[in-house]
Amino acid sequence: MLAQLETTLAEVFGFPTFRGRQEEAIASVLSGRDTFVLAPTGGGKSLCYQLPGVALEGTAIVISPLIALMDDQVQALVQMGVKAIALHSNLAWEEVRDAEWALERGQCDLLYVAPERAVTPRFLDLLQRVKVSLFAVDEAHCVSQWGHDFRPEYMQLHQLWSAAPGVPRIALTATADARTQTDIVERLPLRSPTVVRSSFDRPNITYHVTVKDNATAQLLEFLNTHHQGDSGIVYVQTRSKTEKVAEFLNRNGWRAMAYHAGLDPQLRTDVGRTFVREENVVVVATVAFGMGIDKSNVRFVAHLDMPKSLEAYYQETGRAGRDGLAANAWMAYGLQDVVGLRGLAASSTAPLEIQKREAHKLQQMLGYCETAGCRRRQLLAYFDESAVERCGNCDNCLAPPVTWDATVPAQKLLSCCYRTGQRFGAGYLIEVLQGKISERLTEQRHDQLSVFGIGGDLSTREWSSLVRQLVAAHHLNPCPDGHGGLQLGPQASSLLKGETRFEVRRDSTEKSSRKAPAKRGNDISWSTPEEGQLWESLRALRLKLAREQEIPPYMIFHDSTLREMVLERPTTASALSRVSGVGRSKLERYGELFLEVLRTP
Ligand code: ADP
Ligand code: ZN
Questions:
Q1: In terms of pLDDT, which residue wins out, 184 or 473?
Q2: Burial 447-479 (b: 16+ CB within 10 A, else e)
Q3: Is residue 105 within 6 Å of ligand 1 at its C-beta?
Q4: Which of 230, 243, 274, 489, by CA, is between 20 and 30 Å from 342?
């Protein structure tokens, strides 16, 4: 049995070995058990139902929430020679008819269907005439109200099971939250499932967090230095900002497009399509851009505004580097993010329990930004996973930050906040400390205070950094009126009394932050110019073939497959078939064309 599976894996999917815990999940499905697969984005979950779908007799019914996602998967499977069909509302009636015929005649290994369609009488009736091999529920967190993408249609899925009560169900999600997981098992339901949980680590992603100075210029510098010729996503908080940043990147030699929920639907589809089908495209988007974007060679995800939770941050950064090659997650954040999000939380009218939970999530996000330790370790800790002390692949591990004892300046700042009445913003407090006379300041008679001018020893930049870290640590809080004023937080008094010390990280200066080693992955740099040229020729051929068929280039071969071709230089069909990602069907279709390029001296 196992040998048979490995043959199918190699022949159909072109992969030499299973990845992570795929084999366990697949064995469980094949033995007829319900199975729950938890793995991060890019963890290779799809194979856990696709391979059984191919191996078992009958049709695997795959519930998938987005049409774009279904179409992508089906196209990719068809490229591998698998009989896969998507049934959704964008099809013409003839297409629906053909699909139904194929199903009834047993000519379909995998059928992708949207949840709302799956529970219609017509579909349930159709299933009576189909031999179902298994049910797969992709993005299964959509069934949970705790999750971030709740879809009421998912609650109706139980109607589907009675069409084939004996077949195994497999549910898959990248949600690490325990409450959501329990919900999924109970609500679908899964019957005493085998739970296959992979590590949520994404070792090929390098994490960077930098302090905002001039964020768009910092972004440009980062992209110019590390991502020439790459595709990626830039997340911002507001619609208008997507347009502004995209325009800025366009003016500076990048091909960038804005994306947000307010765009005309047609335009939105076009942006999504261009992003997956072309190379070298940057999408500047709100969080609306994400689920359904399955592009495997997103080389960077950048955040110009801080997300509201680590969960959201991890989901978003997880879209980078699905192909396993090096990718960057880069974020710029500043005091405005902290104060803004805190202020938003403070003015919320949501029930207290929810407010508390959100405040806690924000705090964890801040902790991540401010940490002097390994970022990956913090991320994994959030998902209850332990990790080595230093991952060696985040900014803090690559260039450990310097920390210093800021207890005394912190006391000065808190006392300045207190003495000026706990209503002024950071900029003003710093002016008082630095002894900068202004009309406003003399009007308030703050030049008479004992704290006036006692902070000349630190630069404005250093003071700002300290304020940010004080806010992050709850020594300072934004005033509830939301005007940017600061007041003392719950932790302030112990610091003022000298009962605790305040150790902070020193922000990297402009120069050193430029040098911060953001690896442009050792992975994709070439040791000789010839290799670089070969890589470009292979990419050009791939793009040409993709355009002819109107499919994304990575559906022909992933970047990782092309990279292996460059390094291994196969010149015969049998050598080429040993490259990971080259299955039988693709070898037949494209083998000769790629070999021609590979044989060119
Ligand atoms: P997920 O659904 O968990 O986000 P995918 O199923 O999209 O992940 O898989 C991520 C990438 O890993 C895809 O490019 C896929 O082709 C690749 N992949 C999956 N399984 C294997 C494997 N056994 N060997 C090599 N690559 C794999
Ligand atoms: Zn690290």
A1: 184
A2: eebebbebbeebeeebbbbbbbbbbbbbbbbbb
A3: no
A4: 243
How many angstroms does the Cα of residue 589 sit away from the middle of ligand 2?
Answer: 42
Tracing tokens 């279904």 back to the chain, one arrives at: 70
Q: Are 319 and 307 in contact (CB under 8 A)?
A: no
Which residue's CA is minimally distant from atom 12 of ligand 1?
Answer: 44
Q: What are the distances in angstroms from CA 168 to CA 126, 306, 513?
A: 19, 41, 52
- Cα 404 to ligand 2 centroid, rounded to whole Å: 20
User: Residue 323 CA: which ligand 1 atom is closest?
Assistant: 14
Q: What DSSP designation does 394 have?
A: B
pTM of the predicted protein model: 0.82
Tens digits of residue pLDDT in 254-290: 999 999 999 999 999 899 989 988 888 999 999 888 7
d(CA 169, CA 165) in angstroms, rounded, equals 10
> Are 231 and 279 contacting, i.e. CB atoms less than 8 angstroms apart?
yes
Q: Which two tokens stand for residue 537?
A: 């020729």
> Taking 70 as the threshold, does the pLDDT of residue 521 lie above it?
no
Q: Report CA(369)–ligand 2 centroid distance (Å).
A: 13
Alpha helices for 188-317 (secondary structure H): 215-226, 239-251, 265-277, 310-317
